[in-house]
Amino acid sequence: MATVKGPKAAPATKTDASAFEAVRKANQKDIFFALGGLLVMAIAMTLLLTLIGDLLVRGLGAIDGNFLTSFPSRNPEDAGILSALVGSLLVMVVTGLLAVPLGVAAGLYLEEYAKKGWLSNIIEINVANLAGVPSIIYGLLALGLFVYGLGLGKTILVAGMTLALLILPIVIVSTREAVRSIPPIIKEGAYGIGADQWQVMWHYIIPAAKPGIMTGAIVGLSRAIGETAPIITIGALTFIAFLPSAPVTGDFPFISFAWLNDSFTVLPIQMFNWTSRPQEGFHIIAAATGVTLMALTLSLNGLAIWVRFRLRRGYRN
Amino acid sequence: MANPKIPTATELREQGFVKRRKLIARSMEVFLFLSASLSVFVTTAIVFILVSESWDFFMQVPLSEFLFTTMWAPVFIDPKFGVLPLLAATLQTSGIAMLIAVPFGLIMAIYLSEYAQPAVRETIKPALEMLEAVPTVVYGYFALLVMTPFLQQFIPGLRGINLLVPGIILGIMILPYVVSVSEDAMRAVPNGLREGGYALGMARWQVAVRVVIPGAFSGITAAFILGLSRAIGETMVLAVAAGQNPNLTWDVREGAATITAYIVQMSLGDVAHGSLAYTTIFAVGLLLFLITLSFNVIGFYLRRKFREAY
């Protein structure tokens, strides 16, 4: 388009004119292109904002104290999300306690300890690959291995373990990025005063990488809190009208882990269940559950962005 | 230690301290290594579980019946195990998703990488990342209860449960991922190439189309292939809005169960552990795993290629 093909012996002014014309056309197309980009962006954003707005309009009104403190019910007006909310939080606790230490350890190993070789190569390829495995496959793994293979049953513990495996790649990758961004001088200084490798990790690398690690862990947890498929696959129930056993008891030793072995439901499953019912009343409380769920995941993500922001500022000062 | 003098109490304490320190360092290294190997264990376990649990299934149902017949009715009295209806629905929804994600994703990525001011880019990218955090069950809700009733006004014959709308929603869902990965690939194209284009008198769009896209081609392709793999493995949108009825149809206005929706449906029902119906979810899971794995391998290979090129 833009190549100017002037006749051989044409007067200079004519060549100039056609060149100007070509440039003008190209620039015109440029404006169309930019407008097209803006338009697509605007359409996509508007669509998503409309969808989220619709969810808010339908759901926000249904969220009240009663909704947050009641069990699911056959009657949508009385139904609430107490058991799902508690279930989600307890599953998250298990997931976090498992995924964060294991993910950080794996990330540290890959970044600081692993020697280049076939073994570390296999591990690297594996981590990358696991990030792309559909979440429902993790559910099948958990069903075959945890629920029936190890006989752990359809419990909070199994759900937490499943989601921990699922978010492990996220924690590993963000740990590695955080560790990589630490200036080498910190490590060198620590080695210089006679610290061994683990001391350097524990006293210098982990504290310095903490904001990055936290960002990854929070993003991973927010991902886990919205995951539905693997939890359905392990056989979580959709109707739970009781709470797991209390973690604190009146008798010695006052702390009980019985809740790990209890049945449970989580917010996404509750929402899935209500969305799939034909009655309009359930759609409204499904929307309300969706709003609660989005509030949880988006605030976790906001927290992650804030932590990352803090990290940047920390380095500058 | 080579000193013949009798060690003082302080020296003894220091020796104990050094010993303990070495022990800790060594055991931590082992722990770190074990954590890193967990990923290998998980992959092995996935393959092992999928294969061993579907072993019974493939002993009873020949592979040719599984792959080439067109009826899927595993819990009927006369059960049929042709996976094609599930596969066809999966491919149709992912295909529709790609029809949305490819053009829109490409335009958005070009806009962000070549046209947008840095400030615009820095606000839009985190916003896109936030959208990746929207739970998929919420997208399922959108598909079933918002988009379908809306589109029913314009598309005659669109059922309440259909393949078209979940396909569109899947496309929107993978858009943030596709945009952010292909934008990364475009930004990795060295500026010298762009400047060369401008020096030849190219306009911005010409640089984008003739320099940046060819330069980032492997990365952009990787983004779309990985996006496609996500669409194939996505579950909740399809379980909610595409229906649970195995139905071999090419009419996207009808509903049909996808592989993932079938797994959800069976998991919700009361299937006896060890029965043939129980093994079907592992058989279709194995198929799903192999499909997404091959796309992921291609995608990772392409991504690595674009990273090595510059």
TrEMBL record, chain A:
Record carries keyword Nucleotide-binding: no
GO molecular function of the protein, one example? Answer: phosphate transmembrane transporter activity
Kindly list the GO CC terms recorded for this protein. Answer: plasma membrane
Annotated transmembrane regions: 31-52, 81-110, 130-150, 156-173, 231-261, 281-307
Domain spans labelled ABC transmembrane type-1: 85-304
One GO BP on record is: phosphate ion transmembrane transport
Chief subcellular site? membrane
Q: How does it sit in the membrane?
A: Multi-pass membrane protein
Q: Which InterPro entries match?
A: MetI-like (IPR000515), MetI-like_sf (IPR035906), Phosphate_PstA (IPR005672)
Q: Which UniProt keywords apply?
A: Cell membrane, Membrane, Transmembrane, Transmembrane helix, Transport
Mind telling me which Pfam families this protein's record contains?
BPD_transp_1
Where is this protein found?
Cell inner membrane; Cell membrane
Q: Which Gene3D superfamilies match?
A: MetI-like
* Family (UniProt): Belongs to the binding-protein-dependent transport system permease family. CysTW subfamily.
This chain belongs to the protein called Phosphate transport system permease protein PstA
* Species per Swiss-Prot/TrEMBL record: Spiribacter vilamensis
From TrEMBL, chain B:
Q: Which UniProt keywords apply?
A: Cell inner membrane, Cell membrane, Membrane, Phosphate transport, Transmembrane, Transmembrane helix, Transport
Which cellular compartments is it found in? Cell inner membrane; Cell membrane
Q: What GO molecular function terms would the record report?
A: phosphate transmembrane transporter activity
Q: Which InterPro entries match?
A: MetI-like, MetI-like_sf, Phosphate_PstC
Q: How does it sit in the membrane?
A: Multi-pass membrane protein
User: Among the entry's GO cellular component annotations, what is one?
Assistant: plasma membrane
- Say what the protein does: Part of the binding-protein-dependent transport system for phosphate; probably responsible for the translocation of the substrate across the membrane.
Family designation:
Belongs to the binding-protein-dependent transport system permease family. CysTW subfamily.
Please provide the Gene Ontology terms (biological process) for this protein.
phosphate ion transport
Q: What is this protein called?
A: Phosphate transport system permease protein
Query: Which regions span the lipid bilayer?
Result: 30-51, 84-113, 133-151, 163-179, 276-302
CDD domains for the chain: TM_PBP2 (cd06261)
Q: Could you tell me which residue ranges the ABC transmembrane type-1 domain spans?
A: 87-299
Chief site of localization: membrane
The protein's matches in Gene3D superfamilies, at most eight in alphabetical order, are given as: MetI-like
